[in-house]
Structures are given as C-alpha cells and as structure tokens.
Design goal:
Length: 160
C-alpha cells in the first residue's frame, strides 16, 4: 500500500509575492511537488517513522525559485520533519547535505480520528537564514504548515 500523506506549505507568502513580482521570477516544481491553490506547495510523504504522534516524516519533491537574472536561486528539496511532543524541525537537502532550516511549535497533533500536525511559529535557523542569502535573519518567520497522513497508512505501516 502506498504511503498516503503530504506536507502542505506555502514557505512564506511575502517571499512568493516577491518572486511573482520580479520580471524574471519563477518557481519550478519537480520530483512530485505540486501546488494546491490557496494552500501551498504539496510535498508527498515518502517515508515515516512515527509512534504516538512523535517521530520523523520525510517527503519528496522540490521547489526552486529563480530571479534577478540567476542571482537568486533558492531550492527547497525533500523536506524532512522531526516531530516532537510540542515542537520540531524541518530539514531540506542542500548541495552540502541535509540542513535544518527552521524550527517550529506544534499547535495541533494527531488524534485517534485524524493523523494531522499543524506547525506554527516556524522560525529560520542560521542555515535557514543562509538559504535566503541572509536577507531574512535567524528567527524570522516562515509560514505555518500541515502534515497529514491517512489513518490506513499509519495502521498499515506502523501498527503491529
Ligand atoms: C539584483 C539583485 C537584487 C535586487 C535588486 C533585489 C531587490 C530586492 C528588493 C527591492 C526587495 C524588497 C525589500 C523590501 O521591501 O523589504 C527584496 C527582497 C528580498 N530579496 Fe532581493 N534583490 C536582489 C537579489 C536577491 C538575491 C540574490 C536573493 C537571494 C538569493 C534575494 C532574496 C530576497 C528575499 C528573500 C527578499 C525578501 C522578500 C520578502 O519576504 O518580502 N534577493 N529584494
């Protein structure tokens, strides 16, 4: 049975507006990432190791932003989430290897009825600030995001 799940994340609304306003601004999706209008970029879940709502969820897909004649080239690929009791972190692939770009608070966690996490207060780490060429400072906010997985997926994959 395939893993049914997704990370839905608009990254940061002001950044998307900025790219959209550039004469040569582009966002290129690949490797399974797609857009759900009004919600954000959807990264399908690739693998998960979750117990009691705590664990790790890896996704696949990439979005790459271009602009300013190539001076701006920012890639967010294969986001991986560490989900704790009340907080977590998000790691993306970079040319130098995996990089923790942001930390967040979990304001909603899975219940018996629904396998869904909602992350708020998503703040850039040092590496996250570097990803945006230090235009944003460490601690500056990115958008909230959700992670959902079907209960069937969880039951099939993670229960004995
Ligand atoms: C030709 C070079 C560039 C010019 C003229 C330029 C110009 C600007 C301007 C005018 C703003 C809006 C500032 C504001 O209103 O707060 C801005 C924002 C920004 N720029 Fe650039 N930029 C350049 C290159 C870059 C590069 C190379 C990057 C990253 C690799 C970058 C990333 C950003 C980011 C992340 C923002 C903030 C967007 C937001 O959240 O509002 N820019 N830039």
């Amino acid at each position: 049975m395939p893993l049914e799940g997704r990370l839905t994340w608009a990254i940061r609304a002001s950044f998307l507006d900025y790219i959209a306003a550039l004469s040569d601004g582009r966002a290129v999706l690949s490797d399974g990432a797609r857009v759900t209008p009004g919600e954000g970029i959807v990264f399908p879940v690739r693998d998960a190791d979750v117990s009691g709502g705590v664990g790790r969820v890896s996704t696949r897909g990439a979005v790459r932003f271009f602009g300013h004649g190539g001076a701006l080239d920012i890639r967010i690929a294969d986001p991986e989430l560490e989900l704790g009791d009340s907080s977590g972190s998000i790691t993306v692939e970079s040319p130098a290897g995996p990089s923790v770009i942001a930390r967040f608070a979990l304001v909603a966690r899975p219940t018996a009825a629904e396998m869904r996490w909602l992350a708020h207060d998503v703040g850039l780490t040092e590496a996250g600030a570097d990803l945006f060429s230090r235009v944003y400072r460490p601690g500056e906010p990115l958008d909230p995001f959700t992670v959902t997985m079907s209960a069937d997926t969880v039951a099939h994959r993670f229960l004995p």
